[in-house]
Amino acid sequence: MHPLISNKCKLFNDVAAETWDKVNRHHRNGIDPPEIGITAEIISRIRDEFNRDSNFGAWANPGYQEILHGSDVDIFVESLPGFFVWYAMQAKALKMNGRYINLRDRPNGEYQWEKLLRLQQLSDCMPYYLLYNGRERYSNRNLFDVCNRPFTTEQFGCSLVTVQNIKVVALRQDWNLNYINPRFEDLHPNYASPWRILTCCKPPVNRRLYSTNQIKNYVETYKLLTESVPFDFDEVESRWLGADGSDTGGDRNPFEIVEIVDRAGYDSKYVMMFRRAI
User: Fold this and answer.
1) The pTM is what?
2) In sequence order, which residues have a C-beta less than 8 Å from that of residue 267 and are 6 or more positions away?
3) pLDDT at residue number 254
């Protein structure tokens, strides 16, 4: 490992290599690897490092209400001091037969990629599928990540695929119009990146950032972003225009509207959302 590499980059490298070995071990022993167990271990590893070193620069949460929002695990990577980019991920483990199943699951009538895209619209998170892999006879010596660093095959132990590419591959059909469960080789290396790109490459620009307090209080953050705002806009408008319906105030500053909403007695968190909306 390069001596200047960050601790978080090293951890993501290590976790990927360990996952590659773990999945291969499960397959050798006739067991499909458990997505939930691997995910929980990854979250624990990242939190351990963050709690040990406040400058570690990455945090992880279990997804909140995955059946609604599509995320199994949320990874946060520091972009500016104390502020983090959000990556929302649906996790899938490679099965013993070398294929991914359940990519086309539709809990509540929606594909999981549709839920992730909706969460992206609400939060400006970056959605991915996080794939847990192991393929003992797979070898590729010409692998470079998006920041042009070479990597070895075991870094595909934790790989990232965009929701758009997952949709394309998951909906492929054979000549009889039967869906085909994708193989490892259908996604790697052409559609997949090692997940270390989150912490070893430069962070994306022009993304919404979340504070340490927001990512640690993630349930409240989810609720603020995704719950319906129970405003009675007719009431707000009547307070704005006046009792007779005429605009008594002329062109109002948007923050005056926020004050009206606040005085109407709405919960402070919804006032915050209204403030962001304008």
Assistant:
1) 0.81
2) none
3) 45
